[in-house]
Amino acid sequence: MDNGSDAGNAHHLRRNSTIQHGHTVLFKLPNGEVRSTKVEKDSCGIASLLCIEVIFIDPAQDSIARPGRKLKRLPPLAMQDIAETDATNELINDGDFVQPLTVAEIEDMKKSGFHASEIIKTQIEQHANYSLKTEYSKEKYKQRKEAKYSKRFEIIEPTIYEVCDYWFRKDHHRIRDIRTDTLSQMLNLANVRPGGKYIIVDEASGLVVSAVLDRLGGECRIISINDSDSPPAYPVLNLMNYDKKGSCESAINAELGNCSRRLLHAPLDPTPGCVYSERQRARLDKRKVASDAVMKTRSELFAGGFDGLLVASEYDSFQIVEALSPYLAGSASIVVQSQFLQVKILIDSNAPHKIDNLIPVPC
To answer: Which of 43, 208, 213, 259 is most buried, by CB atoms within 10 Å?
Structure first.
């Protein structure tokens, strides 16, 4: 049984300022699309669209390098004033004759090593109606071509805001449709503060757990309740690139969180008189360590005194609150996230009659 897991030093949970091996990197393409990739030592390609190998940033250097080539560090794009002219778009007639530069010729230029800016400049020079466009239309034309041909990209710092926004755009169902504003409301209503102890039922791919850890920098204690037989692999937490997972977070199965359940497990100690190989002894030791971690987490949960409960689950939210509310301390906050209003109505109507000392707060 290895569903109790501890992770590093709670006071050293912080994000790295440089990209290192094993990190998951968020980067934005010129067309505004945000993608992610994991940096491995011998891997290739930040994205096949860009044909760029994995970047390694050396803190001692002021440049971004990759094996065999130097990448140029570009300044941030700045807003520029556009001086309007008398040109209008009314005399423009679109057709094949407007751009004599063919796709085959553009591909030949790319294979010959022409820079994206040179390709765009050539297209502008051969464009028959470019001079008839307004300044705003010219700028939009350049931006479309840059998004198509430019190999520029921007590394995004993995803050909880950026990570939440990335997952919401990529697959909002996996994070239970939690937007950045919803996540901030959950943290504020739960009164998440340094040094607190919190119970989290997170079925949003680890978004709620990541948000609490990010806000408190690991100066807290979290017990994550889940329905898996082993500690869940939260994909959102992997994007945060923490240097160490601390002992501030442990995971436990929902069945093990029930104090009425009696644990049944395989023998943890060697049977007297039996001869064990090194492999068998190592397996017994590993099983004992996992069992001790589960029992420690279970005892801590049953001891109670937690400062808050945050729930983002597809299961019955009222039953979850009813089962875990006895472990909360006085004046503890309970925050339940759901996409449906009926869940809130059910909790508000049933909780005061079935759960002691619970006062619903409208939000």
So the answer is: 208
Q: Distance between CA atoms of 311 and 278, rounded to whole angstroms?
A: 43
Residue 201 region by backbone torsions, left for phi larger than 0, else alpha for psi between -120 and 50, else beta = beta
Overall pTM surpassing 0.85 (yes/no): no
Residue entry with tokens 């290192």: 20
Q: Torsions phi, psi of 148, nearest 5?
A: -85, -40
Contact 7, 211 (CB under 8 A): no
319 Cβ contact partners less than 8 Å away, ≥ 6 residues apart: none
Per-residue confidence (pLDDT) for residue 230, from 0 to 100: 76
Q: What is the pLDDT of residues 100-158, one digit of tens each?
A: 778 888 888 888 878 778 888 888 888 777 777 777 788 888 888 888 887 777 888 88
Is residue 198 within 8 A of residue 332, CB to CB? The reply is no
> Which token pair is 41?
């030592």
* 3-state secondary structure (DSSP) of residue 335: strand
Q: In whole angstroms, how far apart are CA 249 and each of 77, 291, 308, 332, 334? A: 40, 17, 15, 19, 19
- Pairing between strand 197-202 and 221-226? parallel
Contacts of 19 (CB under 8 A, 6+ apart): 25, 39, 55, 56, 57, 155
DSSP letter assigned to residue 47: B
Burial of 78 (0-12, 13-18, 19+ CB in 10 A): exposed
